Amino acid sequence: MEDTNELIQERIKKLNRLRDAGIEPYGASFTVKDRAADIIDRFGELSKEELDERADQCAIAGRIISFRNFGKTAFSHIQDASGRIQVYFSKDIIVSTRDLFGSLDIGDIVGVKGRLFRTRTGELTVQVSDYALLTKSLRPLPEKWHGLKDIETRCRQRYVDLIVNPDVKDLFTKRSMMVREIRKFFDDKGFLEVETPMMHQIPGGATARPFKTHHNALGIDLYLRIAPELYLKKLLVGGFEKVYEMNKNFRNEGISARHNPEFTMVEFYVAFRDYKYLMGFTEELISCLCKKINGDLRVPFGEDTEGEAEEIIDFTPPWPRMSMLEAMEKEGVDPAVFKSREKALDFAAKKKIDVDKKSSFGKVLDEIFSKKVEPNLIQPTFITDYPVELSPLAKRKKDDPETVERFELFIGGREIANAFSELNDPIDQKGRFLEQVEARNQGDEEASFMDEDFVRALEYGMPPAAGEGIGIDRLFMLFTNTHYIRDVILFPHLRPEK
Fold first, then answer.
1. What's domain 2-141's architecture?
2. pLDDT of 359-369, one tens digit each?
3. For residue range 12-32, what is the model confidence (pLDDT) as tens digits?
């Protein structure tokens, strides 16, 4: 830290010298005519003689990533949003900016103009004829920024991570492309993109613990949304038949390799369809995205001790479908656990699965499933037929009213999507809300609140519909074989710096 402080002080002295000389170290705009990658694409194959004959001029701006000062000359690499290119400074050529030359440091942002040539080593280079300091960097870039010990610092100072690690910038560029392709897919299918509130008077649409705030002007408590579901279904009541929202959700829960309290989802609803329709729709969407992002439907997953992928995930449709009961039996769970809460608790105790003795039957089954089955669902798999108490907004199955028309999609041992045929019976919905209220009164902080306005909307009549939410962060982790959710979020939540 002391060395860094000394370097900062030295740079501040340079900054002051520049200002004393009448040079503003945080300059005005610069007309950028070229990008580093474009220059290399256009001129990278030309020989030294061809470049000298053409004498092509360029004007680029970027950050100094390397700087080798030889007194009267210097070689540097300039990095812009597209990549980096070498530039050559010579005081014999740049007469008008002689006072500026010795004040440059790695990290400074400059604009340069000049012609292209090749050095003795054959590297395509800009011979600078004029340049301007656009931003003086006071804090030096770290020399060693790679490796496990720097992961938290890299996430906390993502701006530095993006400067020094081009692969990180490429990763987030790819994520942006995926989001763009998701929008295109839904737009092409005739869906309407909508926006719904992020602050709710009643947190609903999922079972989760919300963040709470207070609105001074209205004098009411509000909650950051845990899901946009209820608002989107109100739009179905209003007459829209296909809607989607790229949304941020907030859940006041733990942070882990797969959980961040703020996360991105795409949630969508289509009238006159059911959950079975959404299985084929989801296969088409995700396989198309995988092909766009990776150029292949087979992607590496996991990492062994030698750094190689443990296995391959194949996104080629169709994907297996099995009920929650079938999936548990396949993993050796005694089917008797489905007959009573006591048998489920006994099984959990024998297998040392930690469950709250006060948990409902459905929650005990869900905990057993998450420990015994979920980690083994590596290939894309639809799990269906969930207990009704785990799905307060889903339609009951006609032949089995204790389960609902719902699926969750699991890939890579994690939940990626959740979907169901929407409950549109206002009487049944109100009854389930009341059950959730009772569960909350008994201490379940994740149980749903009563939402009288949503019940009122259903009383006007919502068409039969199917809805789904897909986690963007987790899906992108799969496509890029990334192991921590914080690595695919530009600014993940972290504990305060000490």
1. Beta Barrel (2.40)
2. 888 889 999 99
3. 999 999 999 888 999 889 999
